[in-house]
Design goal:
Strand content: over 45%
CATH architecture: Clam
Number of domains: 1
Shape: globular
Number of helices: 4
Helix content: 10-25%
Structural class: alpha+beta
Radius of gyration: 21 Å
Largest sheet: 13 strands, antiparallel
Length: 238
């Protein structure tokens, strides 16, 4: 009887060990990449143009985001007839916000640029993360609305860290938490991601983003991938 009990415990321990092995950061991230379309499909993405709206205080603000992989990102917006933009490219970053009294584009601060340049990786920082000089760490689980979700910390080559919360059923990223520096102070930025939809290219992206730094969620209304985006889009008109 004792030997049977020991055998049962040994088998149980084997299952626990196997389960633990399956929950490594790499296993979870690989399942995440598969869930959003797979490595092969994402490696084919070279550009993306998105149209979105930000609704706040009864006003709908149209936003256009143009991205070329490892080249540039431009966000354009219009409020009460005035248009502004932000540009991040390999050459630097600029903001133009006439609603804030700016009369011409102004260079981003180094802190803004450090964070902004991470957006140049259109295919995602977790894809081939080792080759990019990043590292991953599984930090256990976090309860999100009653669901025990995976908590993955990404440490970039630059040293800046972000924590990704991954749903255990869909393997979608549902939250990203980072520390950013604004006006000389370090603050926490929290972005909730939802409403994942499949694009014709076979990839899935979140169509709703709620950023703790913004007064309302951003909802994508149209997304095009692998279209021609001229280099002049990322040039500043001074």
């Amino acid at each position: 009887m004792k030997s049977i009990k020991l055998l049962t415990l040994a088998i149980a321990g084997l299952f626990i060990t196997s389960f633990s092995f399956a929950q490594t950061a790499d296993e979870i991230v690989n399942k995440h990449i598969e869930a959003i379309g797979g490595k092969e499909n994402w490696k084919k993405i070279t550009s993306m143009r998105s149209e979105a709206t930000l609704s706040t205080q009864g006003i709908e603000i149209p936003v256009i985001i143009s991205q070329v992989h490892n080249k540039g990102v431009k966000q354009e917006f219009t409020v009460m007839g005035m248009s502004g933009y932000s540009i991040i490219s390999v050459d630097g970053g600029w903001n133009f916000n006439p609603m804030a009294g700016q009369e011409k584009p102004e260079p981003m601060t180094q802190d803004e640029l450090n964070v902004g340049k991470e957006q140049l990786d259109l295919q995602g920082e977790m894809l081939d993360y080792k080759e990019k000089g990043h590292s991953l760490e599984l930090q256990g689980n976090e309860d999100i609305d009653g669901v025990s979700c995976f908590k993955i910390k990404l440490t970039r080559k630059s040293g800046r860290e972000s924590v990704y919360i991954i749903d255990p059923k869909s393997f979608y990223i549902i939250r990203m938490v980072s520390k950013i520096t604004a006006n000389g102070q370090e603050v926490e930025s929290k972005v909730n991601l939802s409403n994942y939809q499949k694009l014709p290219a076979g990839i899935f992206i979140p169509f709703t983003m709620e950023n703790s730094a913004l007064p309302a969620p951003i909802t994508l209304t149209k997304v095009e991938v692998n279209i021609k985006i001229e280099d002049t889009v990322f040039q500043v008109q001074k």
